[in-house]
Predict the structure of UDP-N-acetylmuramoylalanine--D-glutamate ligase.
Amino acid sequence: MRLVVLGGGESGVGTAILGKKKGYDVFVSDFGKIKENYKEVLTINGIAWEDEKHTEELILNADVVMKSPGIPEKVSIVKKLIEKGIPVISEIEFAIQFTDATTVGITGSNGKTTTTLLTYHLLKQSGLNVGLAGNIGKSFAWQVAENKHDIYVLELSSFQLDGIFNYKPHIAILTNISPDHLDRYNYDYNLYIHSKFRITKNQTEADYLIYDNEDEAIQNWLKNNKIKANKVPFSLTGKPGNDGGYIQDNNINSIIKNELFTMPINELALEGKHNIKNAMAATAVAQLLNIRKQTIRESLTNFQGVEHRLEKVLKIQGVQYINDSKATNVNSVFYALDSMSTPTVWIVGGVDKGNDYDELMPLVREKVKAIVCLGVDNSKIINAFNNVVDVMVETTSMSEAVQLAQRLAEKGDSVLLSPACASFDLFENYEDRGKQFKQAIHNL
C-alpha cells in the first residue's frame, strides 16, 4: 500500500511515521520548505520526501493520500487525486484505524483551544491516561505510533473534519459557529456549517454531542437535520433540557444521567461569559467519563488558561496590555471587546478571511478609543471603523504598533492585540505574532 502525505509539518510527519510503522510505502511531498528538524526525522526513519515541489508521478500512484489541513482542496494536485478517485483523507481519519482509544472531538469557530485544554486538564487531573492532539500539540498519528493512551482529547478544525469519512468521537463538542475561513468554503457559510457538523455524522446512539444551545447556526442545523448521538446542550439563559449545563443563582449546574454537578461561577479560574460556556462543555465530558465531582471542581479552579488568548501581559504606567493574538476572526474579537471594562486601544489587522465587521460596531463605539492597524492591507478595517473611532493609525511592524498604542493610551486604559485576521502577512503564525507583541511590551 502506498501512502502519500501532502505537507511536511507536524501532522504530515506524524502520519508518515505511523504509516511506515504499519508497513506502508510512504512518500512525503511539500510544495513549501520542510523544516530542518522534520527533514531529519523523516530521513532517520527512512521515509522518502521532497520539498518545494510536487512530483506528479510520485503522488498520483498513491493508494491513499493524507492531506495536511492547511492545503486547500482547490490546489491542482489535490484536484487531480480526486479526479483519479484516490481517497484524500485527514490525519485523524488515517490514525484512528490504528487505535482503540476513546476520543473526545472538539470543534467550533471559537473557544475550541480553551475547551480542549480545559477538558484535557480535567481528565489528566483525575488520573486518566489521556493524550492531547489534533489542531494542538503533538500530532495525533505520531502519538498513536508511539504511545498507548486510553483517551485522546482532539481539537478539530473544519479542515480536519472535511477529510473525515469513518471517524467518530465518542463525545463531540461543538462550542459555537460563526463565519470563519469562508475563503476556503467558496464564501458559502452553509458549507462551513456543514463542515463543522461532520463531527457528529458517524456518531451512534451510544455517543454524545455537547453543544451551545444559544447558537443560532447550531439550532437551525439541528432543527433541519437528524442526529443519532445523545444531545447535551448548555446555555447561559434557562435550562436547556434533561441533560446539560445551565446557570442558576450564580452557579454553574450540569446534569448528566440524573447526576447534578454544581459550582459557583466566581470560583472558575477563567473569566468571561464565553469561558463559562467552555467550562460547561468540559464539565459535561468529565461527568460522562465518571470523574469525581471534587476533581472537576478543583480542576476548574486551578486551570491556567491559554497563551495568546486574552492573556494579561503587563501593566505599565497604569495601562494593561492584553495579548489576544489567537483571535483570528471577528467572533473572537467580539468576545475580547465584550470582556473589556476600560477604554481600549485596539491593535487589529492581518490577512482578512472574508470578515464582516458590522457585528463589532456597537462594542467598538462603546469601548474603543483608538485603533492601530497592523497589516499589509488595512483598507477594509479603515473603511469599516473610520466614522466610529476618532484616532486610527497604520503600521507594518509590531514594535511600532506597541509604541503607538502606548502613546495613545492613558492611565486606566487597556491595549488589546485582538487582530480578527490571520497573521501570515507579517508573521509566521498567531503564536509568533503574540510572542512579538509580548517582547515589544517588555522593550517599552
About this structure: The longest helix spans residues 273-288.
